[in-house]
Every structure is written in C-alpha cells, then in structure tokens.
Amino acid sequence: MIAVILLGGLLGILNSTMAAVATDTLAKAFDTSLSTVGWTSTGFLLAVTATIPFTTWAVDRFGGKRLWLIGLLIFLAGSLAAGLAWNVGSLIAFRTLQGVGAGILDPLVLILLARAAGPHRAGRVMGLMGVVLSLGPVLGPIAGGAILASLPWRWMFLLSVPVGAIAYLLAGRVLPADPPAGQQPRVRLDVLGLALLGPGFTALVLAMSQAAEQAAFITWQALIPLAAGAVLLTGYAIHALLAQRTPPLIDLRLFASRGFTASVTIMGLGGLANFATLFALPLYYQQAHGHGVLAAGLLMAPAGLGGAIAMPLAGRLSDRLGARGLATAGAIVAALSGLAFTQIGADTPELWPVLAAFTIGLGMGCFSAPTMGSLYRTLPTSMVAQGSSVLYMLNQLGAALGVALVTLIVQTASDPITGFHGVFWFAVAMIVVVLAAIPLLPGRPQVPAVEEELATSGRTS
Length: 461
Description:
- The protein has helices at 2-18, 23-29, 34-37, 39-62, 64-83, 88-117, 122-150, 155-158, 160-174, 191-214, 220-242, 258-289, 293-321, 324-341, 351-378, 384-412, 416-437, 450-460.
- The chain is an all-alpha fold and 461 residues long.
- It folds into three domains: 1-177, Up-down Bundle (Growth Hormone, Chain: A), CATH 1.20.1250; 189-245; 247-451, Growth Hormone, Chain: A, CATH 1.20.1250.
- The chain starts with a helix and ends with a helix.
- 56% of the residues are buried.
- Mean pLDDT is 83; it is low at 447-461.
C-alpha cells in the first residue's frame, strides 16, 4: 500500500519540476515569451496551493480512497490534455487542472501514510515519504532533460498517463475501502475559511513567484499579491478564532503545541535551504563549468540521493530514539556542507561540489524525517489532515520563497560565483535557525501530547 501511495505522490512532484526545464522549448514551440510560458509552472503551483485546504475537509467527508482516486483522475485528465495542448493558453489551463489533481494527491500522501502508520511507526513511514520528497525535485529536471533530448515536448505530460493509470488500478486494489457513503461523518464545509485560506496562501506564493520573475521584492507585481495574501490570512485567523458553529479548516490551536510549531518551523526553514540548494547547483554547473541542462541535473542528483539514503534510516531510528539527537546531528552536517559550498570556485574540481551536495542531502534527510515523524507522532488522529495541510502549504510557500530569494541573490551579485556563495550563506543561516529550534521538538516517543494541549487550551479559552 505504501508503495502505491508513494507512486501517486511522485507523479505530482515530478510534474511540478519537469516542466521548468522546458521553458525555452515551449516558448519556441508556441512562438511566445518566456514570461508567458512561465505561467505553465506558476499556474500549476498556484492550483496546488489553492486546492490543499479543500482536501483537508474532503478527506473526512468523502473518504481517503475515494478522494485519492478522484485526485488521480483529475491529474490524468490534466496530463493528457496538456500533452495535446494546441496553444500556450490551453497549456496553461491544462497545467492548472493538473495542479488541482496534485493539490488533492500531495497532502493526501501524508494523510494516508500517517493514518496507516499510527504514532509508533510515524518516523519510519515519513522516512519513506522523504525518499519521494528528496528524489522528486532532482529526478524531475533529469527526466525532463532526457525527454526533451530524444522526444517531442508533449511526451513530458503524456508519459504521466500510463504511469498514472497503473497507479489508479493499483490504488483501487490495495487501498483500504472507505466506509459506505451514508456512514461518512457529515463534516460541514467551512466555506468562509476556504474562501480566505486557499486564496490567501495562493496570493503569497504568487507574490514570491513574481518577485523571482522580476528579480525584486519591491515591485507592484509582488507587493499587490503579498498585501492581498496578508489581508486574506489575517481575515482567516480572525474567522478561525471566532468560529463557533462550523469547525475551521485549520484549527489555530494546533500552534499552541510547542512540538507542532517547532516541527512545521523546522520543515519550513529546512525546505527553504533545500530549495535554495537545488536551484543554485544547476546554475553553478551551467555558468561555471558550461554544462547543459541534462548534465547539470545529473551532477545535482547526489543531493537528492543523500536525502533518499538518510531519510528512511533516520526516520526508523527516530521511532525508538526520538527526533532531537538525530535532527541535531543532521543539521550540523548540513551546515558544514553549506559552509563547504561557500569555498567552492569556478576552477574547483567537480568532485568536491558533488561530495558537498551528497553530504548536505544526508544532513537535511537526517533532520527532516525525524521532524516529520515527531509531528505525526504527537498529532491525534482527528488532527492529521489539518497538520498535513499546514505542513504542505508551508512547504509550497517555502519553495516559492526559496526560489525568489535565490534569484534575487544571484541576479544582484557582482559575478556568478559570488551569487553562488551568497545562496549558501543564506542556506547556512536557515540551518542555524533550525538548530536553535530542534530542542523544542518532543523527546523520546510518548503518548500524543497535542491532544492534551488542545484540550487544555479548549478548557481555558
């Protein structure tokens, strides 16, 4: 069952990164600008972010298996349509449809795995999920480059159709059946919360994407969605705190738990450092060593490989030892690897950045899997969907912010190597903050604490 869920989750992650390497190809194919083609990726990302809050409610209303199959069908329809797109407008629309499917699948991966694992195996299962999270962003550009080198661009999307069809058939056979429709809990949809939370986070992601495109944060293209996102999320916070009749999509009392807040903070900052690394490394290999897209992607692969090796091992160990020690060791290794990158120049033999990429992946894997495991270990079952949504929305926001900051650092630097060093000083700073937050994680595995904290918060509010 776990393998089938991970297969479906990998589809969305691969497609989110694969299309990024085809921007120039698509611009030539449709005779349009790079900024216009960029919306094929931006539209996908925004649709994912906007759909996640709906998934939080729908998984309890319709059941995990039903929603998973619906998400796969939507994603497959978007993939097939994108592969048959006749102009750039239709491609943007169909990529957005793909994003809706991915916005259902991606948080469902975490929800279904966490519910299947239970608190005592949370680290082990989140470690397996970490393999997908580590390899997906690396394999996407490699797969995209390989397809573009030998096949028409349409196959970047069409190849998802047979793989998704296999994932659909397997899911229908192995996922546990949902209760009959009449026995599903009648959870009322927080319509106002959905109208505020989804668009609010989407506006923030759009602001970060526009900042990356304009290479500046102080520009109206970034400031307008940033202000809109801040207003919408403030409105949601007020609504969630005052809601009485309909439960809010995300109960803000989750953040009353020190362990939960520390976990999502560490994952958010770690994601910032990770995306900064994955964005900067291909630029370094292309600009400093003159490699093409495919070669740069292959040289970047050790970062994902390090994470894929470390996360299952660290996750399994954290179920017995707790998160703090493993996460501390991993953050130290990642910080030292980031510092090593600040000493690499244009004439440095490629062996050294490859080794540094592998060890930074190992380090990030060692603090990410235990942190994810501790988050789900302390969440009561009723809060798993909400916790997953918070984690994934912050991950989307962190990815967009990481790309925007890296773009700004690189474009304002005096030369490519100075920009490369600046990116890794930023990554090291994020990892240092992660180190400071790790002591706030729960200790050795114990009885879920968030439920008790929420109950205490409810009695005193």
